[in-house]
Amino acid sequence: MKVAISGKGGVGKTTFAANFARWLSQKGITVLAVDADPDASLGTILGISEDVLADLKPIVDMKELIEERMGGSGAYYSLNPMVDDILDDYCVTLGQLQFFRMGNIKGGGTSCYCKENSFLQALVNSLILGEQDTVILDMGAGIEQLTRGTALGVDVLVIVTEPSKVSIQTVKVIQKLALELGIPRAVVIGNKVRNLKEESFLRDHFSAEELIGMIPYSDELLEMSINTGSDELPGGSLGVQLNTIYQRIVDEGR
Ligand SMILES: Nc1ncnc2c1ncn2[C@@H]1O[C@H](COP(=O)(O)OP(=O)(O)OP(=O)(O)O)[C@@H](O)[C@H]1O
Ligand SMILES: [Mg+2]
Prior knowledge:
Layout: E1 2-7, H1 13-26, E2 31-36, H2 42-45, H3 50-55, H4 59-70, H5 80-87, E3 92-94, E4 97-101, H6 110-128, E5 134-139, H7 148-153, E6 156-161, H8 165-181, E7 185-193, H9 196-205, E8 211-216, H10 219-223, H11 236-252
Parallel strand pairs: 1-5, 1-6, 2-4, 2-5, 6-7, 7-8
Antiparallel strand pairs: 3-4
Magnesium ion binds at residues 13-14, 37, 41, 138.
């Protein structure tokens, strides 16, 4: 299953992606967590040190390497035996979780992203991804990365939103794009919800089918940006709420 996380800047995409990835991996599922945000931060939130991240080669380079080896044919599907041995340079393994970074794609327009994303998609589809494995793509803020290439492989698009007008405007734009791109399912998660008023604000703007869950404003989640890399997932009632959302996404992807 492939899940892409999108939404307006700062709404909590990376925090959600990191927790979801950890939850899956603790359930014994192999997770490929991909930082597709040019302004990378998923690795840091997952607790990978700056040194390791600095040495980690981006997937964009793998594409070049593979093209080099393949003579630029783009025949990614026959690469299986060759990729395993080079994968280590491109991936940090944390138990059941494998972290990749997409890498900065400089200067290009949408077509440029599209190319890298199609490659990523071909890669995860044909080379690495087993039946149970899950790919989680932490997208950047904005929608420029949501191209046909990325969308192709995505089973569920999770759009994170705060209870604010500007944030839900972004959701609407992303929903429309998801539809155009043929993404089978786009769901909305309300994040940093502080009270009933904010809850009903979100409920007023989305159907029950769209809005699959809400996450309260929580100091514990806020602190994840300071105490990065903790193995412990939020417990208590927050944990229960989060688990319900994760399970819902897994079910949506079936
Ligand atoms: N439910 C929550 N309650 C309180 N704080 C939260 C919650 N979710 C996320 N945050 C905090 O909000 C800030 C932004 O979160 P995060 O980096 O995950 O957002 P983002 O959407 O990935 O941002 P960007 O668009 O910059 O990539 C962080 O400090 C994070 O700890
Ligand atoms: Mg982020």
